[in-house]
Amino acid sequence: MSAKYLVTGGAGYVGSVVAQHLLEAGHEVTVLDNLSTGFRAGVPAGAEFIEGDIRDAGKWLDASYDAVLHFAAFSQVGESVVKPEKYWDNNVGGTMELLAAMRTAGVRKLVFSSTAATYGEPEQIPIVESAPTAPTNPYGASKLAVDHMISGEAAAHGLAAVSLRYFNVAGAYGDCGERHQPESHLIPLVLQVAQGKREAISVFGDDYPTADGTCIRDYIHVADLAEAHLLALEAAHPSPATTPAGGATRHSVKPGEHLICNLGNGNGFSVREVIETVRKVTGHPIPEVIAPRRGGDPAVLVASAQTAIDRLGWRPARADLAGIVADAWQFTQRLEGGKPDGRQPQGTKES
What digits encode the pLDDT tens for the residues 293-344? Predict the structure, then answer.
């Protein structure tokens, strides 16, 4: 059945890919983005676009919307350390106003883009949702604060909500891909070396207690991530009346419930494995420069996605690192040629 969704931050990397998946599933999509970090050209063709801030969502949000998917947040860890007020104001304050607008409009279904940064340095691997949350930077702390806010909103006002805590998102989907400014993620940075935009890739520490001495991270394809959002929407019931007569199924998220799920492949790849994979996929040499460890970088971060498997029926289908890198490389080449930036979204509104 077709539904109508508001996607905040839908001009950004993950938001644009999710918006594209929603459109392909036959849904009506409105993207709300102030373009402070997103790109107008990233809004998928077929989506209505509103250039505006999440604090003003009440101007457009009404009972015709079935749910909100919330991606609008600042996400640079380093910046959050030097400008914490920016992250508290936007990520927390903005979400508070978005929840108020949803309450006023009677929209009682939410999927929230959370992060593995809420856990900080893990005590055990793989990381499960019951692990202690001890973020090591204001970005992670702001996302954790929003998770707490959503739990309270669900309990008090009957919101059916799912928070998806991502690990390392990578890859691309068609004309939707990663183009952060500035860029801080490993795979696109290594691809910049292959393009000749960087002389070498910095490896921050090669003396970790891992097989090759470099950090290990869990990489998830952005298309797998998008599919998890659609499953989360299916699982969240907006009202008690939609609960099956025989009771809630194992997949349902009932009104008043806030489900938190980790999303990852459950397997890790080291920094050196990523670099070597880029060499093979692109055919370019990738010089390395060994740099000192960065503070707060755990040796291994790998997710347990068992909750998403059990509650949402989700499983990653694109776990091959070479495939993830190849999709990112193809997008990077198209972006360099100008194709993705030449497309205009339909139905644009200004705030």
Answer: 987 778 888 999 999 999 999 999 998 999 999 999 999 888 776 544 333 3
The amino acid that residue 217 corresponds to is: R
Residues 6+ away with beta carbon under 8 Å from 36: none
Residues tagged active-site: 139
CA dihedral (312, 260, 319, 197) in degrees, to 10, reads 140
Q: Rounded to 5 degrees, what are φ and ψ at 172?
A: -150, 165
Question: pLDDT digits over 193-222, tens only?
Answer: 999 999 999 999 999 999 999 999 999 999
**DSSP alpha helices (H): ranges in the chain?**
13-24, 77-82, 84-87, 95-105, 138-157, 186-195, 222-235, 271-282, 306-312, 321-337
Compute, in degrees rounded to 10, the torsion defined by CA atoms 336, 166, 225, 284.
30
Quote the DSSP letter at residue 302: -
**What count of other Cβ atoms lies within 10 Å of the Cβ of residue 326?**
18
Distance of alpha carbon 92 from alpha carbon 98, whole angstroms: 10
Half-sphere exposure of residue 315: CA atoms within 13 angstroms, side-chain side: 3
Q: How far is CA 170 from CA 13, 111, 162, 279, 325, in A?
A: 10, 20, 22, 17, 8
- What lies within 8 Å, CB to CB, of 19 at 6+ separation is 7, 10, 29, 31, 43, 44, 47
Q: What residues contact 151, with CB distance under 8 A and at least 6 apart?
A: 258
DSSP per residue over 167-225, as a string? Answer: -EEE--BTTB----SS---HHHHHHHHHHTSSS-EEEE-S-SSSTTSS-EE-EEEHHHH
